[in-house]
């Protein structure tokens, strides 16, 4: 059995290991603090001994970030900790993931970020290898979902305001839209709406996703311009985006050229020429 220690909080480095949970939800954390204050800490954290102390830290945290954070906020000086001996960083990561899966859910975006960062740091060569190691009991369906999350995070990193708030359903819809060739049009819409926050971003891309799913692109060989066309970007500083709406479609004009009202008049004149009465 691994030994139980009572370590100074200052001796534990909470960032010695990659974390799948990048944010701590305030209300559950406050509830945990109240529980610890009233009844004490029921479950020790898990640590491993660092081969070389760093910045005063002698141990790295494997699992228990919320508990460590709560005890720190309560002013505790020490915390009970199980001393683990992982054979590798990858094994320590898998232990952390397993622990967190049984507690407060980790968002799909955070799972994807962990997989990608673990690959960047050289712990795994491919997303499939990372998923197999970090989620060894995952079903085939769960592994497929995790790969989809990785695809979304890879394509849309930096374009979303608070991606950790994306639900499973929305991550899956984004993944489907990306597979249907929607990366360019989604990226543009997300960047434009980013200053207004995630809710506004989702309102901007939801109709685009609906259109992509309802009308997959025609990729037949020899087609000069894939249909349907959803985005047109011209060198003159004009971007035209097609969006589905109730009863039909909208064409959204943006860019410096779009600020000139005469452009829209010209477009309407052309439409009237095509479809107006002779």
From TrEMBL:
It comes from the Bacteria. Residues 5-101 form the ParB-like N-terminal domain. This is ParB-like N-terminal domain-containing protein. GO terms for biological process: chromosome segregation. SUPFAM superfamilies: ParB/Sulfiredoxin. One of its GO terms (cellular component) is chromosome.
């Amino acid at each position: 059995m691994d030994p139980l220690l009572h370590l100074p909080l200052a001796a534990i480095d909470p960032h010695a290991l990659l974390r799948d949970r990048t944010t701590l939800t305030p209300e559950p954390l406050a509830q945990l603090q109240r529980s610890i204050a009233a009844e004490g800490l029921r479950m020790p954290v898990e640590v491993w001994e660092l081969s070389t102390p760093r910045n005063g830290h002698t141990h790295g945290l494997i699992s228990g970030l919320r508990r460590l954070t709560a005890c720190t906020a309560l002013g505790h000086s020490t915390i009970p900790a199980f001393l683990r001996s992982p054979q590798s960083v990858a094994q320590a990561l898998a232990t952390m993931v397993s622990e967190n899966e049984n507690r407060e859910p980790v968002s799909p975006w955070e799972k994807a970020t962990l997989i990608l960062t673990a690959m960047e740091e050289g712990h795994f060569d491919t997303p499939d290898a990372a998923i197999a190691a970090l989620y060894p009991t995952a079903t085939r369906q769960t592994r497929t979902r995790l790969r989809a999350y990785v695809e979304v995070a890879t394509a849309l990193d930096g374009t979303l305001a608070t991606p950790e708030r994306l639900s499973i359903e929305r991550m899956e819809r984004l993944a489907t839209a990306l597979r249907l060739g929607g990366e360019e049009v989604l990226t543009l819409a997300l960047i434009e709406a980013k200053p207004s926050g995630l809710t506004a971003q989702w309102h901007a891309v939801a109709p685009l996703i609906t259109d992509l799913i309802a009308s997959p692109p025609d990729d037949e060989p020899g087609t000069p311009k894939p249909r349907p066309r959803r985005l047109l970007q011209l060198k003159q500083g004009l971007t035209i985006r097609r969006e589905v709406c109730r009863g039909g479609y909208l064409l959204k004009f943006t860019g410096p050229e779009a600020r000139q009202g005469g452009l829209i008049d010209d477009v309407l004149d052309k439409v009237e020429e095509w479809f107006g009465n002779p």
